[in-house]
Amino acid sequence: MQHDAHYHNPAITHGTHHQPGAPFAPAMTPRRSVPGLALPTPSMQNQIHELAKTLPPPRKQNTACDACRSRKVKCNRLPGQEKCQHCLSKNYPCTHFVQQATSEKKRSSAVNRRPRNISSAGANVPPSTTPRYAPSSASSSECGPSTPSGNPQLPLMVRYGFCPPLTTSTPTPEVLTFIFAPPDQNEQSVFQAGLTRSPYDAWGELASKLDDENFRAEFALDLVEVFFQIVHTRLPLLNPEQFRSRLQLQSTTTVPSIPPLHPALVATVLAWGCKFSEHPLLIADRKRPGGQSLLAKTLIDRARDLAEALKVHRVPSSDHVVIALLIEPLQNQNPDDPNGFHGFWLTSATRHLLDLGINHKSVMANIQDPENRGTMIFAWWMTCLCDAYASAYYRRKPVLDDDDYDIDFYTADPIPDITDGAPTPSPREQLEFLGYYRAAHSLARTARMMSRQLWRPATDSDGVPFDNLCTFATALTEWRDHYLNAVGVPSNFAGEWDFVSAVSSCSSDATYHVMWIILFNALDDFGIKELNNAVASASDLTEIENVKRKVADEALHGALRIAGLAGVLTSNGYLRLDPAVMHISCILAGTLLARLGRPEVSNCIAGLKQYSYAYEEAGDQANEMNRLFQRVRNGDIELNHMVSIFPRGSSPASRSSHSPHTSNAMLVDEHRPNGSPSSAHPFATATGSFSKPAIYGQH
After folding, report:
1. Which residues, at least 6 apart from 397, have a Cβ–Cβ distance to it below 8 Å?
2. How far, in Å, CA of 152 to CA of 381, rounded?
3. 111-148 as b/e: b if 16+ CB within 10 A
4. How far lies 193's CA from each of 187, 431, 629, in Å?
5. CB 353 within 8 A of CB 317
6. What is the DSSP secondary-structure string of 545-570?
7. Computed from CA positions of residues 330, 335, 337, 340, in that sequence, does the dihedral angle turn out positive or negative?
8. According to the model, what pLDDT value does residue 122 have?
């Protein structure tokens, strides 16, 4: 498994416990000759030695630390280190309270089993030592959920209900006790010990209120509403009415008539709400350098811990599909982050959907509940699209292929016509009305085709075959002519747009244009195969250069376009409320503009800085982009195979005047039938035309 890879020790796997580079030397003890027993001959000793190397090591009982024990992973502590590898990577205290308690229990049992001296039994038996870890339950045979007043040195997973593990039927108030438990010691260390008055102080001056059950319930309800007003509009995987009806936040003595929500789903929704909420508790928590909330980051980790503990990534179910799809964009979006598990939850959701047979039309048609069927259809298409786009963004082959499914968008119940007085359609239905599904799926197929050809070892070593390059360029051009005018930012902009309409159109527009940037980067890194091997004729060279120039022009135009859209969204504060939909587009477009020394990169930098409100890594990405831009402005060349299009001393800004696209990204795209290069695009002066969502500035 991806997230457990760093616990694997090759030496243990192969049955060796010697230091690297040291010869294997099994312990030898002197033996006394026993009559009738022949000692092993040298050849037999060699055979035994070879056999010993293939046997697993002796099982070590009761040596795992508390954190590894709760996660059910191997506890690997290297010689000479005080902490195991897992606790080092997570900055956990690496305690062994459960091991100590078990040892104390065994010692106490051994004392009770010893033969007693009848005459002095009551006087000679020493009292048993009180274990440092004591279950809060009255039963000594099982470990019940503890309370915040328990031993603060215990890892959170041990203190709050993971012994025995939480189940999917655990009441939500008990789940909130774990989710809003005080921060771990590593978070408390940011404060001086003398100034810490409450275990919650690391989360700001108001966080101590989380110790009250009623406040936890009210705070959780606020975060749920933030989720449905901001995140649900972009990721409509839940039924808001159904979720609210099952969200039982107060403890009760009566048996609820409906089962509680999945604990990992509750934790994930609350973590999303923490990213964007303006609750006074979170405002106080963000009063620190950088402006990020430590509580928000902690809730992301706890949502992931709950999902792992409840085997969301292992057991196929509809709830687990939804949870995995919501966790993936929730966490750190930097693929180099060692704790981000980038792509892990998306892969888990894909595997679950295949195991459930959702890729078969016959299976989908047999799902009787319309709500469940609609959710699974949307989950499938979200997974399908994300898998394709992510493969292009992060240079890997997609998991799914075109022939892995036969369902279509009409498997769900027909959507009624919108008439006066009819109920407002859900965000998912709105997207269907506007044709985003069909357009996105068509572009996803092109992205999947590009990924399977570009990210191959043969392409890396030999270059991109010219016929493949022409196929990609033709497919992108056809998609633009057929779909962009319908799902992108329209040229006949009129009236005010809301948050959903603005971000949806801008993201669809940007997703198309970023494909040209990806193609440009591949050509710059790998080159064209026929040019690399010097097998192209003179006529072929001319044609190849023309196609290279077209890709460069489209990539530059796309980067400028994305920078313009990012500038509009940033000026309206929308990227502060965006669940990473435009994130990768800003990075790829801004990086290309920085490599070309274009000043329009400032829009992408500003957009990433606004993203850093919810995604901390975006601030570092903005700073790195600015450093790259400054290096290029000082004379560095950042191009490889595509340097012939932008040679040294040639200004990309001057070249763009000869491009079929205008250098101003905010002018009307000439691809649009009713646009003209001389008419200014309404976005150029419409930065105040978007209406901010109702949630903005209210929490």
Report:
1. 391, 451, 452, 455
2. 45
3. eeeeeeeeeeeeeeeeeeeebebebeeeeeeebebbeb
4. 12, 52, 43
5. no
6. HHHHHHHHHHHHHHHHHHHHHHHHHH
7. positive
8. 38
pLDDT at 679: 30
pTM for the model = 0.72
Q: Which of 4, 179, 199 is nearest to 89 (CA)?
A: 4
Domain residue ranges in the chain: 66-96, 156-365, 456-684
Token digits for 604? 């992408």
Tokens 């966080």 sit on residue: 207
Query: Residue 670: is it exposed, middle or buried by C-beta count within 10 angstroms (0-12/13-18/19+)?
Result: middle
CA 165 to chain centre: 24
CB contact at 8 A, 369 and 348: no
pLDDT for the residue 521: 97
E strand map for 44-120: none
For residues 500-521, average pLDDT: 91
Identify which of 591, 600, 590, 582 has the alpha carbon closest to the alpha carbon of residue 664. Answer: 600
The confidence score (pLDDT) of residue 535 equals 85
Tell me the helices (H) and strands (E) count for the chain, helix number first. Answer: 30, 0
3-state secondary structure 186-252: HHHCCCCHHHCCCCCHHHCCCHHHHHCHHHHHHHHHHHHHHHHHHHCCCCCCCCHHHHHHHCCCCCC
Please give the residue that has the higher pLDDT: either 440 or 136.
440
Contact 444, 385 (CB under 8 A): yes
**How far is residue 181's CA from residue 204's CA, in Å, rounded to a whole number?**
14
- CA torsion through residues 79, 84, 88, 91, sign: negative
Name which residue leads in pLDDT, 490 or 608.
608
CA-nearest of 300, 187, 264 to 580 is 300
Question: Which residues touch 211 (CB under 8 Å, ≥6 apart)?
Answer: 148, 198, 200
Preceding amide of 652 cis, omega within 30: no
